[in-house]
Amino acid sequence: MGFGEQLNEIVNRLPDSRQTVLFSATLPKILVDFAKAGLNDPVLIRLDVESKLPSELQLYFIAVRHEERLAALLVLLRNYIESKQQTVVFAATKHHVEYLHCVLDHLKISNTYIYSNLDPSARKINAAKFSQGKVSVLIVTDVAARGIDIPQLDNVINFNFPAKAKLFVHRVGRCARAGRSGTAYSLQLIAMDEYAHLLDLHLFLGKPLTVITATNSDGIVGRIPQSLVEEQHEMLLGLHDLHLDLVSLKDVSEKGYQQYCRSRPAASTDSNKRVKDMGFSSCGVHPLLRNNSKDIECQKENMLDQMRQYRPHGTIFEICGKTKSQDYIAMKTKRAFHKDQIAAHHQKLQQTLQDVLETTSNKTHLPDSNNDIIESTFKEIILPKKRKIDDLYKKKVKKIRDEEHYVPYLPSDKHTEEGLAVNNFNQEATKVQFDITGDSEEMIKTAKQIKKWDRKKKKMVTVNVGSKEGKIKTESGVWISATFKSNRYNQWKERTKAAENEADSDDDTNNNKNEDMFKGRPNTHWARHNDKIKLKQRRSELKSNEQILKQRIIAEKKKKKQKGKRKQHRKRK
């Protein structure tokens, strides 16, 4: 919220002997760093509810296109949510908040808005309007929603799906409190990146993720009837033609969303791989969002689904080309050659889809039992006894252990010391902390630079996130703080230099012989290059057939000459 400097100033003016209690709805990283620097021996006390959702909360995951996201929001507000119910709409940036506020104002839907850069007095007034029931819709960002307590909230709509599972729980956990029922709608883009975040969310909650299809209506991801979306979409197009300010706000929100996508954390690699086989693009209409009207609408939806899923059997060369063209003939021969592979691929796709449907249909959902039913049914309940780790080893080593001289691997008070350790707060705080992406350009840019307490300078200094400054890389490839480096190995090398020199003196004679062997060899690159060229220019010692024949002819000629000279010499005699 931007109160870091004020908190540090207040802490510096407080006496040393004090007891400080710090309350916060969330636990961002900067708050953990502040607790490490400004608090002595901190203790973390938290309610373990962020990984659980109340059973009274209904979750709807709706698949929409990018250009139909606003139309889907209007369908929910007009057709499925009563006007008296209080609804909070979470948007990505402040530009989305301003754009949605203007659109709802033009459509006469009572609403108000809050974002981080809003004036404090306006923020207080808008929050009071919504809490007192003067308006039914509140449009906020994640940063601005912190610190706002709404006890009687009916619905939560995620206009932009959160990038973290804990952030989703923090959003939808505002409704369905104190035994009241609530509903959470999440508008999903038909894009792989947001579906990967959806899969991460269900892995975090430990719930299965299934898609609603024409044959399987037990899924949780569906879509709104297309007729309702088209009606609102056409109305929005006419509204933008009449009001030019909406066009400019829409362009600004689109650019802000692109920057938001660059700065938000990415989903896990495993989820990105699994999402490709889930079939989100062909999901059917959600059964709870269907019209109670006519069979004509159902037939229309089925026809549109078939048109979306239609894939031509031929390529562009076969459909638009002439039968006598070379492209047509080449594609026909290629298709005939790979006919078996194509049939096997389609059969494999049908088999995988059938396996998924069978596994989902065979699941049985049984009601959970409670403690009262168990106690009334069974007279005695036997639970397994928790065995200590020390008891497991005592039975095995009891015969050979000498209690007087035995030195254990772990001290007897290891668990007690870990529980009383000072860094226990740091470990627990790191597990539960999560940061929220900023809702404006300034916050997105400044999020990359955080402030950290410097012990030497005694003040908060700016540190770039993810920088390797002041860190060293271990042999396992992990970056740790440079303070862990003890230089013991280098100190040992300095101490043992004399011993190394004495050991090397014995091998001086052998080393001199090796040096004499390499003494005449070239040292530079070009010298070695020239030697290679000289070796290539040398004649080979192996002679070819022509060379052997030529030498034999020359030898015979020499013999004939020598015989002729001998005959002439004999005649003279």
From TrEMBL:
| UniProt cross-references to Gene3D superfamilies, sorted A to Z | P-loop containing nucleotide triphosphate hydrolases
Spell out the Basic residues composition-biased ranges. 557-573
Q: Which GO terms describe its molecular function?
A: ATP binding; hydrolase activity; RNA binding; RNA helicase activity
Cross-referenced Pfam families = DBP10CT, Helicase_C
Q: Which UniProt keywords apply?
A: ATP-binding, Helicase, Hydrolase, Nucleotide-binding, RNA-binding
What is the uppermost EC class here?
A: hydrolase
> Which reaction is this enzyme known to catalyze?
ATP + H2O = ADP + phosphate + H(+)
Composition skew (Basic and acidic residues), residue ranges: 528-544
Q: What positions does the domain Helicase C-terminal occupy? A: 76-220
User: Where in this protein does the record put region Disordered?
Assistant: 495-573
Q: Does the keyword Isomerase apply?
A: no
Which superkingdom is the protein from? Eukaryota
Q: Which residues form the Helicase ATP-binding domain?
A: 1-45
The cross-references to SUPFAM superfamilies, in alphabetical order and at most eight, read: P-loop containing nucleoside triphosphate hydrolases
Among PROSITE patterns, the record links this protein to: HELICASE_ATP_BIND_1, HELICASE_CTER
Q: Name one GO cellular component term.
A: nucleus
- Which CDD domains does the record match to this protein? SF2_C_DEAD
- EC number(s) recorded for this UniProt protein: 3.6.4.13
Q: What is this protein called?
A: RNA helicase
Q: Which organism is it from?
A: Popillia japonica
